[in-house]
Design brief:
Layout: H1 3-30, H2 38-45, H3 70-84, H4 90-104, H5 114-124, H6 146-150, H7 160-167, H8 174-190, H9 196-221, H10 239-252, H11 257-268, H12 274-287, H13 292-300, H14 306-321, H15 328-338, H16 342-359
Helix pairs in contact: 1-13, 1-14, 1-16, 3-4, 3-16, 4-7, 7-8, 8-9, 8-12, 8-14, 9-10, 10-12, 11-12, 12-13, 12-14, 13-14
Keywords: Hydrolase, Magnesium, Metal-binding
Protein name: ADP-ribosylglycohydrolase
Cofactor: Mg(2+)
Length: 370
């Protein structure tokens, strides 16, 4: 190995670890503010910049400060799958998610999104994982997609098939695949990018191509006849157009970062729908100028689905700037609170990323090539 290769490998390791750190730290920062409005957050916390516990009446009050939610848990589950299998299908993803839910005893906790909850019930009943996600238009696939981007550093065009497989069991809709491809493509590009604009370019490409690919897969999965009971999940605005608009709006807004964030959030929405989450993530990234810590703080205080917003934005920004961009006391506190070594997970993804450079992209199982 040459000295330049060693430098490149060290940089990749730092950025993949930065991605996972952003996912986890953002998730834990946003945990106590989830379901609250921006005004309620200011009243209760001022501004959340360190780990806090949720109020006693909050749905996540049982979690201590710094604890992760289902966002990071699912990310780690997919990271294990990606690390262990060079080629995987939606069936493998379904097994990984069912295993995660059983391990976390999530039947007794309201800790997963509506699309994932519904799909897991269908999967337990033995239904086809290429049909269980046909109504999933929420952000649950994007929260777990970062590891897919991590194994294709600098090659966002290679994430598409793997993204479809990760989405299919719970979120096989054009908007969900588009949003997830945007995030995975952004992470993949960020790992070797030098500017934030390169990341946005990759996200826009991912959104456009993800929409197209999802429609192709859905056509095959349903034999061209989408069941009436899931049709509401299949009628969506264009996430690619919404993402482009969000980036333009964020660039045009005036005022402090918090004031710009608040106006952006009111315009786009902070709910759990994919059509809101990923465009808002991109807009917050632009307002924060790509700074990972400032981005997760802005997202954690935005109101609504704050843990998902902060987790996704942290993953993309962390992939661009590496783990050193986060306050190290927060990183250590997160790992203590959750008894997890993100470096160990990152090492596995680095090994898989090195292999993917020569092995090619993951091919879909059960669906045709584009």
């Amino acid at each position: 190995m040459t000295s330049q290769q060693q430098v490149d490998d060290q940089a990749l390791s730092s950025r993949i670890l930065g991605c996972l750190t952003g996912v986890g730290v953002g998730d834990a920062l946003g945990m106590p503010t989830e379901f609250l409005s921006a005004a309620q957050i200011r009243q209760l916390f001022g501004e959340v910049r360190t780990f806090q516990a949720a109020p006693a009446w909050h749905p996540l009050a049982q979690l201590a400060a710094g604890r992760m939610t289902d966002d990071t848990e699912q990310t780690l589950a997919i990271a294990r799958l990606v690390t262990q299998k060079a080629v995987f299908t939606a069936r493998d993803v379904a097994e990984a998610l069912l295993g995660w839910a059983a391990e976390m005893d999530l039947d007794s906790l309201d800790r997963m999104g509506p699309s994932t909850n519904h799909a897991l019930k269908l999967l337990r009943a033995g239904e086809d994982p290429y049909r269980t996600g046909l109504r999933g238009n929420t952000n649950g696939a994007a929260i777990r997609i970062a590891p897919v981007g991590c194994v294709y550093p600098g090659a966002p065009e290679d994430v598409l098939d793997a993204v479809v497989e990760v989405c299919a069991p719970t979120h096989l809709t054009d908007v969900a695949v588009a949003g997830s491809t945007a995030v995975a493509s952004g992470v993949a590009r960020a790992l070797q990018a030098s500017t934030l604009d390169e990341v946005f370019e990759a996200m826009l490409w991912g959104a456009r191509r993800g929409e197209e690919r999802a429609r192709e897969v859905i056509e095959v999965a349903t034999d061209g006849r989408v069941p009436w009971e899931v049709i509401s999940g299949q009628i969506n605005p264009s996430l690619a157009l919404r993402l482009e608009w969000a980036l333009d709006l964020a660039a045009s807004l005036k005022g402090s970062p918090r004031e710009r964030r608040d106006r952006l959030a009111r315009a786009i929405g902070t709910g759990a729908l994919m059509i809101e989450t990923v465009p808002l993530v991109a807009g917050i990234l632009r307002i924060a100028e790509g700074d990972p810590y400032e981005a997760v703080v802005l997202a954690a205080n935005a109101g609504g689905d704050t843990d998902s917003l902060a987790s996704i934005v942290g993953g993309v920004a962390g992939a661009l700037h590496g783990v050193a961009a986060f306050p190290q006391e927060l990183v250590r506190a997160f790992e203590r609170a959750n008894e997890v070594s993100l470096a160990r997970v990152a090492d596995g993804l680095v090994r898989r990323a090195t292999m993917s450079r020569t092995a090619g992209s993951v091919r879909p199982g059960g669906v045709p090539d584009a």
